């Protein structure tokens, strides 16, 4: 199973509709559908929200409870270590993706002539004046930004 299938499986086990899960995590039902069908990349923050809403560990969503069928009462320390490792790997992958996007942007900028670079700087300056596009504490864009 993949992440989306795991979300759907756990959601159904918990007898929740997509609409109910969407309400719990603060997104539209269509976004939950996209998560379950692996149509969008899910951030760590969103995985944590989903896990909390479903009352499971990220482990259950990312790996799947069928893969490593732990009882929540047993081996909690080992399970916590695995959860942390999963989160660390996801964060690392997100950071690598952001770095790749930065390098791509720099390469595109460098391919412009002086006039194009000046125009690109103007666009960037304009974007920094719009709250919707300015960075807060969170450097990685979330999947909700695509909606």
What features would you describe in this structure?
The protein is mainly α. It has a single domain (3-133), classed as lambda repressor-like DNA-binding domains (434 Repressor (Amino-terminal Domain), Orthogonal Bundle), CATH 1.10.260. Helices cover 65% and strands 0% of the residues. The chain is built from 7 helices and no strands. It has helices at residues 3-13, 18-25, 29-36, 44-54, 58-64, 76-110, 114-128. α1 (3-13) crosses α5 (58-64) and α4 packs across α5 (58-64). 14% of the residues are buried. Mean pLDDT is 81; it is low at 138-147.
Low-confidence parts:
138-147
- Secondary-structure element series: HHHHHHH
Radius of gyration: 19 Å
What's the CATH H-level homologous superfamily?
lambda repressor-like DNA-binding domains
Shape: elongated
Quote the CATH topology: 434 Repressor (Amino-terminal Domain)
Query: What is the chains' assembly state?
Result: single chain
Helical content stands at 55-70%
Mean pLDDT: 81
Question: Main beta sheet, described?
Answer: none
| Beta-strand content estimate | under 5%
User: How many individual β-strands?
Assistant: 0
- The level 1 CATH classification is Mainly Alpha
Class from helix and strand fractions: mainly alpha
Q: Per CATH, which architecture?
A: Orthogonal Bundle
Distance between the termini: 25 Å
How many separate domains?
A: 1
DSSP summary: helix tally = 7
Topology:
Layout: H1 3-13, H2 18-25, H3 29-36, H4 44-54, H5 58-64, H6 76-110, H7 114-128
Helix pairs in contact: 1-5, 2-3, 4-5
């Amino acid at each position: 199973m993949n992440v989306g299938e795991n979300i759907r499986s756990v959601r159904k086990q918990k007898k929740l509709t997509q609409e109910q899960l969407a309400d719990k995590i603060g997104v539209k039902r269509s976004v939950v559908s996209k998560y379950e069908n692996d149509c969008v990349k899910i951030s760590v923050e969103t995985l944590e929200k989903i896990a909390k809403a479903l009352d499971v560990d990220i482990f259950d969503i990312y790996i799947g409870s069928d893969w490593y069928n732990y009882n929540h009462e047993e081996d909690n320390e080992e399970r916590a270590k695995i959860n942390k490792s999963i989160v660390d790997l996801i964060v690392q992958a997100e950071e690598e993706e952001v770095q790749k996007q930065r390098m791509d942007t720099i390469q595109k900028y460098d391919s412009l002539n002086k006039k194009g670079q000046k125009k690109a700087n103007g666009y960037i300056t304009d974007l920094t004046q719009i709250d919707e596009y300015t960075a807060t504490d969170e450097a990685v864009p979330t999947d909700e930004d695509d909606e």
